[in-house]
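Try this one yourself first.
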């Protein structure tokens, strides 16, 4: 430590002497301070004034969530915050525990699965704008999100933080989020780049897959966030890819991110994702966070000096084992991030918990809740002549904005589903609540006590009470599913299986026996098995929807909002119907797992057949398919038309389809376009999503929806050529209300 401090001092002197400081212009501002000058000029000017030690200081953390600025030059610190769904409460300098501030309660927005389920880029823009304003008000420079890892298996404990199984859907949705967020002078940090598709063994899983699967499935949403969204930072993930940790992986961070995509922002490590100085230096990482996750474990006076990109890097430079070119590049990338955020003098002030943000959370939730099933039109509830609603289930009262890992929040208000239903129906009906089941109760999260929901009754006592409440109710609303506890929807652990925990299947079956008008609201960020699905009248997919959860659920149940969400991932009937489980390796190569190897290889043998691509290929019948979601009205699709049946390599075809609201209530429909390649040199999925539009229609109203298709929509990635290829031949355009509800199709040809 002493050695490096004195070495650092020597380097400070050395490089300060070498620095040529230009004269102060007449404006009184130095070039790097002058926001009228081009960004690159300011970055190189600032860099030219910095010593080696100052450059080192800005490329690693100085606390749990901040990195140092350059105090001598008035360049401020950089402050990061989780997470994708709201602004994390302040934590202690070196610890995950909350700092106990009283001004850091936020609005919790719906989890990103719910955002993806809106299939509405306008909702993504509203989300980015709102969360950006909250981040800005809390003086944060970098928001650690959004997450766009592809949903490969329903067991991944972190799927709720991502945007589903389809690269096209995730790509379209991530762009407006990033753009609107960054208008606040707050950087998006798109995560977790790349291939962090499970939480089980997330630091030691060594993913391998074909380049085709990498480019067609796992990278597109990251590319879109960077190239189309203009993301200012990217978070490198924990896992390994082809033998190298992602934070130190030059194929991912240099060849693809920088060279192919032209990324000019900063690559930030996931917290504790760096393992080696040499590899981090050459591998393309810019900013190291979270090594030894309490910041102090190395037993040094200041463990941050021991970070891989701190004193050990200085030592390499001092010994001549690393040149300063890489350091300059890293410092420039971090400076660019600082100028765009902390040093941005034009950024707005932001706002916290404004009525607009609360309304945005409710609106996004209302558009994202998915009506999976609605027999006999039981929803929306018709209360005429009805007096009693039984609400059953732990998730009706359990706060869901807390837990689940780094996305856990401290909210100003969270309206529980029970409270939301009481507010909406309390005047016209008796609302009777029974717990029904009890999940495991955690006592605290990040040092804060959790709501005490302990209940010592046995399963048969709880069931008996719930059944008696359900028996004489007009409607039963069961609110269950998963929660944010470990091994459910929670960071760092995966689920043990597809089934619901805590005996909920048994309970729902008992309830359905005594009351056919049972509506199940499944709260989860993942697909779950529903062995009772045929016995209940309606099922809603309720996600984790944040501060306005109860109000948004009541909006849908009452019909104040007509459901319009569509599934962003498949609900498989069985785990074996998922490509990763049927064909690929999970949670790692079985032999290596048995041997207890330090890092465990995992080959994605299912390749490009992820989600509905596999379900279509294997011809399985999902419980609910990708893109599925009902409404309280009905839509009729006309015969699709095309302005041509043929396109050349540089041409395009415009398709149109008329959609009419044939019901009695206004509603929104998402028209989905899938493309099928009828014959190809490489195997292709039976169909792939290549367009979607969400439209609103009054009763009887008809609109024409158009899609333009060019070679990008027809291409596959050819590994051997390292290029996208649009192969001439016959294609089919399929127009549907879900991936399994195709209402019309047209064939067309791509010609040379
Ligand atoms: C998570 C990241 C998060 C970071 C900081 C890590 O454990 O994987 O998503 O942003 O912690 O909390």
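Now uncover the answer:
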């Amino acid at each position: 430590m002493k050695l490096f401090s004195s070495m650092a001092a020597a380097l400070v002197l050395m490089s300060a002497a070498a620095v040529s400081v230009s004269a102060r212009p007449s404006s009184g501002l130095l070039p790097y301070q002058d926001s009228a000058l081009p960004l690159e000029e300011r970055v190189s000017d600032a860099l030219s004034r910095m010593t080696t030690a100052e450059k080192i200081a800005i490329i690693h953390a100085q606390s749990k969530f901040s990195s140092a600025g350059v105090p001598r030059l008035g360049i401020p610190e950089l402050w990061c915050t989780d997470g994708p769904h709201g602004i994390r409460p302040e934590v202690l300098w070196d610890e995950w525990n909350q700092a106990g501030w009283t001004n850091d309660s936020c609005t919790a927005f719906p989890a990103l699965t719910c955002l993806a389920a809106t299939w509405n880029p306008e909702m993504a823009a509203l989300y980015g704008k709102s969360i950006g304003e909250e981040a800005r008000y809390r003086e944060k420079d970098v928001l650690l999100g959004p997450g766009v890892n592809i949903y490969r298996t329903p067991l991944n404990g972190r799927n709720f933080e991502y945007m589903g199984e389809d690269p096209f859907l995730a790509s379209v949705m991530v762009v407006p989020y990033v753009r609107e967020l960054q208008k606040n002078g707050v950087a998006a940090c798109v995560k977790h780049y790349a291939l962090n598709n499970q939480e089980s063994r997330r630091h030691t899983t060594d993913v391998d897959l074909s380049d085709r699967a990498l480019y067609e499935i796992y990278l597109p949403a990251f590319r879109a966030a960077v190239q189309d969204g203009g993301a200012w930072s990217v978070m490198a993930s924990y896992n390994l890819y082809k033998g190298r940790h992602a934070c130190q992986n030059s194929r991912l961070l240099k060849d693809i991110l920088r060279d192919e995509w032209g990324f000019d922002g900063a690559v930030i490590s996931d917290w504790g994702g760096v393992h080696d100085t040499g590899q981090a230096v050459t591998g393309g990482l810019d900013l190291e966070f979270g090594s030894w996750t309490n910041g102090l474990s190395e037993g040094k006076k200041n463990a941050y000096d021991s970070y891989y990109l701190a004193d050990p890097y200085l030592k390499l430079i001092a010994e001549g084992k690393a040149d300063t070119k890489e350091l300059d590049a890293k410092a420039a990338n971090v400076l660019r991030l600082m100028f765009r955020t902390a040093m941005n003098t034009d950024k707005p002030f932001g706002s916290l918990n404004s009525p607009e943000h609360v309304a945005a959370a409710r609106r996004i939730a209302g558009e994202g809740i998915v009506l999976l099933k609605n027999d006999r039109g039981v929803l929306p509830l018709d209360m005429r002549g009805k007096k009693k609603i039984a609400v059953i289930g732990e998730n009706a009262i359990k706060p869901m904005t807390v837990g689940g890992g780094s996305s856990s929040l401290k909210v100003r208000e969270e309206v529980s589903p029970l409270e939301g239903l009481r507010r909406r129906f309390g005047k016209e009906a008796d609302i009777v609540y029974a717990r029904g089941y009890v999940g495991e109760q955690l006592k605290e999260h990040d040092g804060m006590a959790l709501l005490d929901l302990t209940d010592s009754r046995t399963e048969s006592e709880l069931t008996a009470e719930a059944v008696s409440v359900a028996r004489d109710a007009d409607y039963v609303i069961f609110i269950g599913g998963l929660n944010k506890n470990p091994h459910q929807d929670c960071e760092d652990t995966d689920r043990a299986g597809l089934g619901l925990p805590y005996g909920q299947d048994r309970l729902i079956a008992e309830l359905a026996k005594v009351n056919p008008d049972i509506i199940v609201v499944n709260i989860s960020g993942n697909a779950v098995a529903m062995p009772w699905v045929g016995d209940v009248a309606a099922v809603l997919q309720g996600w984790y929807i944040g501060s306005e959860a109860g109000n948004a659920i009541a909006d849908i149940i009452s019909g104040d909002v007509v459901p319009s969400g569509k599934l962003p991932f498949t609900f498989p009937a069985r785990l074996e119907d998922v490509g990763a489980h049927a064909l690929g390796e999970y949670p790692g190569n079985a032999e290596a797992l048995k041997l207890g190897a330090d890092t465990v290889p995992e080959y994605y043998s299912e390749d490009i057949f992820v989600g509905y691509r596999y379900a279509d290929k294997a011809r399985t019948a999902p419980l609910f398919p990708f893109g599925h979601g009902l409404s309280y009205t009905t839509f009729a699709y006309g015969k699709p038309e095309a302005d041509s049946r043929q396109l050349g390599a540089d041409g395009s075809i415009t398709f149109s389809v008329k959609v009419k609201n044939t019901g009695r209530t206004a509603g929104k429909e998402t028209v989905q376009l899938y493309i099928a390649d009828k014959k190809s040199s490489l195997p292709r999925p039976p169909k792939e999503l290549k367009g979607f539009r969400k439209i609103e229609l009054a009763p009887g109203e008809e609109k024409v929806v158009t899609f333009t298709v060019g070679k990008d929509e027809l291409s596959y990635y050819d590994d051997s050529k390292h290029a996208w290829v649009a192969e001439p031949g016959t294609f089919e355009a399929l127009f549907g209300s879900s991936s399994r509800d195709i209402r019309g199709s047209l064939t067309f040809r791509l010609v040379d």
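Discussion: The chain has four domains: 5-340, 369-569, 570-631, 633-752. The CA atoms of residues 215 and 478 lie 41 Å apart.
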